[in-house]
């Protein structure tokens, strides 16, 4: 079960394991747009915002004492001027100034948090857009190496981290540090001697932290690893219900779920126990700080060196201190666990692009391609591979397809039939040779223009979630009449009018789940029709349609595609029989070509006829 | 307990209990934490934690299985959980109450320290003051530490309850869904069911773990604190209470607003995500059609809209947190105002008593709006689960539609060793969906012969899949009856011919043991190839060369062996969600390999040929008909291939849910038959 998914075929996901240092924060912050001049502002806002909670207790202590115990002698000192203000003003005025202080604190805090997290989130969104643009230009083979789920996770979990979690953690970390610093400063101001209590506590805190974080990181990783399989089995039980039931495997899957749950529970509860371990120790640390301060206060009170107000203030400093420390530790370990998200997104921002592979020659860059007219296609000693480093999938293929011809392509699985289509769409890593359409090498045309020469009906009838219109014409360039014409051509119009009252705006579920496989195939046909490209590529398009419908479509297609070049990957002999030319692919090479009358008997004799069909 | 021991290989000699000090200081985890500084965590590590094992043995009152619990689950999930968890809940209440009392006592002692040194005590000698001050300070320290440990222990129990409630509900939900009737399942998309298990079950669990205990504790402790404050600072205490209570409507308002913001955010981020998913799933297609730029601009537009909503939410959360974290200041200020209003004098100890006690009270009351929220979420979650649990199980639907096996025909499942010679009889079968006006099958009557091929043909949407699934008992007819006939071999060496209605539990079990089904869209489990073919999860030592040989053999016959051999880890390659993505054809061949492996006497194929080459199909077909597996298997095949139709003993032509023609090839291969029209013969 736990065998790793190897290297070669599917690229392994990068996983960060090490501890994160200053490097991480600098990498994060430097990738946030416009951080340069804002950074000092952010720092100032965070530090000033954290003064208010303890500042309030401090003010109260001054308010209680007034000028009674300590002298208000120093005319310029801040503290004595506040004391004087409180003792000179009426109680109402004193209270209302405290009130203003609180209200300001609330508004200021709300503003600072919104500003800091909002600014960082804005940086996250900018990264998101860059990643999307980059993925649109990445060589398409990238998608074969990465499971879809993995790419989508970058946009769900990882992006959510970047948008919400990381800004919050950064804000919390700086906020907690600022708050602890303020406690140091206030204790230092009020009772410089009590400052000594801070150091041992700080040491203990750092020690506890350094023991907790690595262990917690490990156990958290384990919990994550153990939790995901549970949900994937749960989901597939629901999705694969039919198969599981039919083979009588309900019990098998239930046992599996229970086992996975058990494993997860063990690490989840252990992880929780570690957090509790931390809670208790941090509470003891903060109480220790409180105890030392209290003892100091008792001494100062006994000596008459301190008023009861300031004494109470100092003793109250440990209220919530453990909470702050705990939050700081938590934020540290949480940001560690989200670090991977940032790394993954940064990785996707810097992928090599397709355009890099296909430099557009300057002379042809501006030339417009007229898509409608049919043109000759010529492969000239064309060799290519899926990715550099992999073996050739097409080797020195040379052939010419005159404009307007209907060409059948046959061969065994993996012989390179679909790869020919990939070559036309320039989705391969070209080794040597070229493909010319109408005399111009494809690689010298702008990529989007070159791709516009072709329309494809792919093997798997894929539909997008949205509406029917959406599926036929995503760019919204066609009038309704044209869409209906296309639907009529594939014999779907009547069905849709009868069964779907919303017509073109009828909903299509994800992957077309609400439409039968045959009908999905027909919609894909209509989609290709609408592209109105000079070259039509079809990959066993009518496999899941009954012969009656198939025959009707064949007739319609022949009519609609008259005058266009049509390349069909054939899976039935009938399909190939009326082609002008048949190509036989074998291990990435063109093994034979010619008219069907010539090729087919030869082919049937040379190998098992059935193996022509994939 | 013994299950855990066995599973974790814990020897009987190891105690499964922790010492008192370990329980107090959570120190049993120390060695593990030290170890984890050096190396990654393994599942064995957590298995060694005695406490973790102990907590599993914690008492609860859950029934042993889902079925006995079902009536209670259907009436109220909330009440059911309360009944099962009541022991834990009482324990948590006791611990939590104690820890709150301890922390109140600590605060009182801290105030006492200030009081000792106040002006009123001038005649007491300083040394005595210092002594009592130091003693009090030590007391404060100890009380707080004990309270912290108690609190941690209570939270630990909370975690256990969260886990246990969610795990149990999730498992039962899964079991329920796996036994649910087909049309009930159609009402709940996969995503909804997963969501109910992930979110709703968690909400119920969280309510019981947190709010159900904390709320009564909060009530008692707040009353106590207000009384203490009253005794210490006089009537000003009630001003504090008033301001504290004022926080409740404010937070309720904020959380309502927040929920609206949040829902909108979810909507927008779902929209962005579904765009991204579509775009990535069809990466090639999008480029074929030149839709890339459109997708990119749609996605970044969606991201911008999501971000704007997120900003609103951030402003909202910031304001609401700023208010709630600063509220204690307002409370304290209220007390000071109270002093002024009631013209009572205020000493430093009173002022700080106000601050201390109101911050404890604040801590208690802070989660109140959250309690309200999780209560309402739990109620909603519980209702959604009830709705799912109230659906019909397959067996319930059978009973409701009057399908049952006569008692005297029943044979215990374990008495049946094997079965063969499967055939079916359908009498006036109708399948109607409540949501659709047109029937999926209309008045279908036929006999499907044993030991030969029956082909089902018909245009797209004619009801071929529905017919197959009705035969398997997956779909329950609304009218008419379906019988399965078979010869079963019994344990005692005898054999019997049975004629059972398909739609009863016993027949269903019989079919599931001896049938093979290849659906139109293949199912791939997130497991290795080795596990996917037999559809069994394997432990480390559960397979050997012989086992592998059988799997490879099945793969070979399904023409998938070559594909598997180039996979990174061969048979051990993980497939599915987190592993290698197979192509459509490969998935379909995997599905066929599964059928090959199973070697069953009844084979149902739902047109899997669309992505499979004919060579494989012919091979499989030859094997099935060549009786390689012993007695001739009964084959029911939705197919269009003429070669198979010629071999079929029976061809059933469906159109619009009706049998329009049935017979063998020579009978139907005439001009003007629906079959010939369907096969489009003569059009070319």
What's the layout of helices and strands?
The complex is a heterodimer of chains A (614) and B (684).
Chain A: H1 22-31, H2 35-49, H3 52-65, H4 78-88, H5 91-137, H6 142-145, H7 148-190, H8 195-239, H9 241-246, H10 250-302, H11 308-316, H12 321-349, H13 354-357, H14 362-365, E1 377-385, E2 392-401, E3 406-411, H15 417-424, E4 429-437, E5 440-441, H16 447-451, E6 454-457, E7 466-467, H17 468-472, H18 480-489, H19 493-499, E8 507-508, H20 517-531, E9 535-539, H21 547-560, E10 565-569, H22 573-577, E11 581-586, E12 589-594, H23 596-606
Parallel strand pairs in A: 3-10, 3-11, 6-9, 9-10
Antiparallel strand pairs in A: 1-2, 1-4, 4-5, 7-8, 11-12
Chain B: H1 2-8, H2 20-25, H3 30-36, H4 43-47, H5 50-56, H6 66-75, H7 77-84, H8 86-116, H9 126-178, H10 182-186, H11 190-233, H12 236-281, H13 283-288, H14 292-341, H15 348-365, H16 368-389, H17 394-400, E1 416-431, E2 441-448, E3 453-457, H18 464-471, E4 479-490, E5 495-501, H19 505-514, E6 515-518, H20 529-532, H21 545-557, H22 561-565, H23 584-598, E7 602-606, H24 614-625, E8 634-638, H25 642-647, E9 650-655, E10 658-663, H26 665-668, H27 674-678
Parallel strand pairs in B: 3-8, 3-9, 6-7, 7-8
Antiparallel strand pairs in B: 1-2, 1-4, 4-5, 9-10
Brief account:
Chain A is α/β, with parallel strands linked by helices and 614 residues long. Chain A has helices at 22-31, 35-49, 52-65, 78-88, 91-137, 142-145, 148-190, 195-239, 241-246, 250-302, 308-316, 321-349, 354-357, 362-365, 417-424, 447-451, 468-472, 480-489, 493-499, 517-531, 547-560, 573-577, 596-606, and strands at 377-385, 392-401, 406-411, 429-437, 440-441, 454-457, 466-467, 507-508, 535-539, 565-569, 581-586, 589-594.
Weakly predicted, low-confidence segments of chain B: 13-17
Please tally the helical runs of chain B, counting DSSP H or I stretches of 4 or more residues.
Answer: 27
Distance between the termini of chain A: 32 Å
Largest sheet of chain B: 6 strands, mixed
Largest interface, counted by CB within 8 Å of the partner chain's CB:
A-B, 177 and 182 residues
């Amino acid at each position: 079960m736990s065998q790793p998914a190897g290297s070669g075929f599917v690229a392994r996901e990068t996983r960060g394991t090490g501890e994160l240092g200053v490097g991480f924060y600098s990498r994060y912050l430097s990738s946030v747009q416009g951080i340069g001049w804002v950074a000092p502002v952010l720092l100032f806002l965070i530090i000033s915002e954290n003064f208010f909670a303890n500042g309030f207790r401090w003010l109260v202590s001054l308010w209680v004492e007034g000028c009674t115990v300590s002298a208000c002698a120093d005319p310029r000192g801040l503290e004595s001027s506040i004391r004087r203000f409180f003792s000179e003003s009426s109680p109402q005025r004193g209270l209302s100034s405290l009130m203003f202080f609180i209200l300001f604190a609330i508004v200021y805090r709300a503003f600072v948090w919104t500003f800091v997290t909002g600014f960082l989130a804005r940086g996250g969104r900018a990264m998101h857009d860059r990643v999307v643009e980059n993925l649109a230009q990445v060589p398409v083979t990238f998608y074969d190496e990465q499971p879809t789920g993995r790419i989508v996770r970058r946009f769900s979990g990882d992006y959510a981290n970047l948008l919400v979690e990381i800004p919050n953690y950064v804000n919390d970390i700086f906020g907690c540090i600022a708050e602890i610093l303020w406690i140091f400063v206030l204790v230092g101001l009020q009772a410089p001697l009590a400052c000594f209590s801070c150091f041992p506590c700080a040491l203990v805190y750092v020690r506890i932290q350094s023991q907790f974080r690595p262990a917690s990181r490990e156990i958290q990783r384990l919990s994550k690893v153990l939790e995901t399989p549970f949900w994937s089995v749960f989901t597939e039980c629901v999705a694969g219900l039919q198969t599981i039931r039919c083979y009588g495997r309900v019990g098998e899957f239930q046992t599996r779920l229970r086992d996975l749950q058990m494993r997860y529970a063990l690490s989840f509860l252990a992880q929780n126990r570690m957090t509790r371990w931390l809670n208790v120790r941090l509470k003891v640390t903060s109480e220790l700080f409180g105890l030392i301060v209290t003892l100091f206060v008792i001494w100062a009170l006994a000596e008459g060196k301190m008023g009861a107000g300031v004494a109470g203030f100092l003793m109250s400093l440990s209220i919530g201190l453990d909470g702050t420390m705990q939050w700081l530790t938590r934020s540290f370990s949480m940001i560690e666990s989200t670090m991977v998200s940032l790394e993954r997104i940064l990785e996707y921002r810097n992928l090599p692009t397709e355009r890099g592979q296909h430099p557009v020659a300057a002379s042809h860059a501006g030339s417009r391609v007229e898509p409608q007219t049919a043109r000759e296609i010529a492969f000239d000693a064309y060799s290519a591979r899926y990715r550099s480093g992999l073996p050739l999938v097409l080797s020195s293929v040379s052939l010419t397809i005159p404009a307007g011809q209907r060409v059948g392509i046959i061969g065994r699985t993996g012989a390179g039939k679909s790869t020919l289509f990939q070559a036309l769409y320039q989705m391969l890593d070209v080794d040597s040779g070229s493909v010319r359409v109408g005399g111009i090498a494809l690689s010298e045309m702008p990529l989007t223009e070159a791709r516009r020469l072709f329309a494809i009906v792919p093997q798997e009838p894929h539909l997008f979630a949205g509406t029917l219109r959406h599926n036929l014409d995503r760019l919204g360039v066609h009038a309704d009449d044209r869409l209906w014409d296309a639907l009529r051509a594939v014999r779907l119009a009547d069905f849709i009018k009868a069964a779907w009252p919303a017509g073109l705006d009828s909903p299509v579920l994800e992957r077309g789940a609400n439409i039968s496989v045959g009908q999905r195939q027909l919609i894909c046909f209509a989609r290709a029709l609408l592209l109105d490209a000079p070259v039509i590529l079809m990959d066993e398009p009518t496999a899941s349609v009954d012969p009656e419908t198939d025959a009707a479509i064949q007739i319609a297609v022949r009519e609609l595609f008259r005058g266009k070049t049509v390349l069909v990957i054939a899976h039935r002999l009938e399909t190939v029989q009326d082609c002008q030319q048949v190509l036989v692919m074998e291990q990435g090479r063109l093994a034979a070509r010619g008219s069907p009358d010539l090729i087919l008997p030869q082919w049937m004799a040379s190998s098992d006829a059935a193996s022509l069909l994939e | 307990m013994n299950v855990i021991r066995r599973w974790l290989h814990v020897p009987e000699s190891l105690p499964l209990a922790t010492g008192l000090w370990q329980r107090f200081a959570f120190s049993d985890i120390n060695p593990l934490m030290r170890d984890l500084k050096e190396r990654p965590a393994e599942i064995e590590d957590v298995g060694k934690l005695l406490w973790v094992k102990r907590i599993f043995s914690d008492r609860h009152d859950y029934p042993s299985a889902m079925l006995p619990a079902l009536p209670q689950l259907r009436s109220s999930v909330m009440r059911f959980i309360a009944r099962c968890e009541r022991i834990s809940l009482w324990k948590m209440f006791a611990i939590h109450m104690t820890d709150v009392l301890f922390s109140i006592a600590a605060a009182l002692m801290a105030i006492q320290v200030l009081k000792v040194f106040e002006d009123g005590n001038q005649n007491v000698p300083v040394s005595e003051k210092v002594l009592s001050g130091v003693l009090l300070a030590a007391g404060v320290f100890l009380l707080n530490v004990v309270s912290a440990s108690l609190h941690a222990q209570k939270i630990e129990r909370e975690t256990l309850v969260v886990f246990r409630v969610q795990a149990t509900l999730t498992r039962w939900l899964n079991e329920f869904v796996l036994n649910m009737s087909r049309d009930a399942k159609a009402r709940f998309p996969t995503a909804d069911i997963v969501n109910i298990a992930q979110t709703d079950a968690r909400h119920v669990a969280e309510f019981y773990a947190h709010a159900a205990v904390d709320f009564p504790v909060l009530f008692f402790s707040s009353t106590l604190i207000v009384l203490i404050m009253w005794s210490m600072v006089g009537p000003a205490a009630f001003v504090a209470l008033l301001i504290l209570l004022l926080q409740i409507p404010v937070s309720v308002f904020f959380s309502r607003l927040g929920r609206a913001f949040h829902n909108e955010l979810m909507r927008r981020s779902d929209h962005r995500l579904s765009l991204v998913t579509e775009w990535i799933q069809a990466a090639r297609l999008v480029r074929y059609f030149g839709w890339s730029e459109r997708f990119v601009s749609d996605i970044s537009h969606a991201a911008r809209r999501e971000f704007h909503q997120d900003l609103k939410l951030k402003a909202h959360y910031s304001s609401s947190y700023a208010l709630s974290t600063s509220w204690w200041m307002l409370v304290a200020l209220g007390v000071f105002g109270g002093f002024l209003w009631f013209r009572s004098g205020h000493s430093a100890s009173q002022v700080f008593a106000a601050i201390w006690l109101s911050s404890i009270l604040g801590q208690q009351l802070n989660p109140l709006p959250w309690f309200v929220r999780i209560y309402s979420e739990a109620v909603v979650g519980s209702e959604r689960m009830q709705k799912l649990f109230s659906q019909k199980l397959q067996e319930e639907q059978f009973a409701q539609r009057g399908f049952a096996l006569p008692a005297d025909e029943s044979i215990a499942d374990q008495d049946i060793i094997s079965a063969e010679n499967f055939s079916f009889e359908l009498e006036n079968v109708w399948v109607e969906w409540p949501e659709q006006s047109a029937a999926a099958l209309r008045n279908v009557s036929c006999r499907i012969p044993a030991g030969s091929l029956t082909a089902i043909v018909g245009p797209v949407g004619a009801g071929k899949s529905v017919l197959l699934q009705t035969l398997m008992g997956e779909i329950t007819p609304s009218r008419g009856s379906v019988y399965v006939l078979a010869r079963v071999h019994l344990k005692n060496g005898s054999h019997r011919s049975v004629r059972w209605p398909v739609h009863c539990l016993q027949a269903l079990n019989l079919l599931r043991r001896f049938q093979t089904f290849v659906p139109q869209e293949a199912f791939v489990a997130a497991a290795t190839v080795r596990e996917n073919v037999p559809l069994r999860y394997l432990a480390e030592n559960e397979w050997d060369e012989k086992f592998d040989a059988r799997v490879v053999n099945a793969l070979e016959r399904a023409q998938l062996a070559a594909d598997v051999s180039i996979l990174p880890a061969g048979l051990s390659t993980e497939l599915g969600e987190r592993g290698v993505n197979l192509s459509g054809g490969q998935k379909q061949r995997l599905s066929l390999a599964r059928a090959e492996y199973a070697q069953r006497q009844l084979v149902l194929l739902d047109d899997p040929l669309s992505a499979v080459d004919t060579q494989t199909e012919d091979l499989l077909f030859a094997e099935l008909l060549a009786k390689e597996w012993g007695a001739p298997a009964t084959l029911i095949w939705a197919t269009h291939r003429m070669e198979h139709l010629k071999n079929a003993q029976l061809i059933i032509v469906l159109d619009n849910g009706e049998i329009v023609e049935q017979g063998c090839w020579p009978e139907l291969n005439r001009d003007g038959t629906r079959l010939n029209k369907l096969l489009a013969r003569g059009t070319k």
